[in-house]
Write a structure and sequence with these properties.
Blueprint lengths: L1 H18 L17 E7 L19 E4 L15 E6 L5 E9 L8 E3 L1 H8 L7 E7 L1
Parallel strand pairs: 1-5, 2-4
Antiparallel strand pairs: 1-6, 2-5, 3-4, 3-6
Length: 136
Amino acid sequence: MAIKMLYALSLLVACGIVSALPVEDIGVTATATTGDLSGRGTIYYQYGAAGSCGAVHGDGDYIVALGPHYMKGPNSPYCGRRIFAKNTNTGKSVTVTVADTCPTCGPGDVDLALGPWKALTNNAAPGVFPVSWHFS
């Protein structure tokens, strides 16, 4: 019994320490789904696999993955919606279609396939850029 109590107490202390860790502010702002959002633009590859919306796309297709804030599974109402995205550093913009889920994206982040990535970043190496976007 004492071992179980010690284990439970250790678990509670560990949870308290983890919940007290600071979270990095990355400057993401999100308004209503009808307004502009801003966050990070990143790149991803589908490697011939179907996205969470069920379709297979090529890496050059103008598609985007949104975070779990929007994508709740294969029947997400956001599947197939179009997004106008702009690189706020360069002013370049594209229109893309929601086709997948980005598990690590926040509410203002977008994960772009290779085609729109090249258009927005002038074919830059994979990385991160500031993006603003809204549903079309």
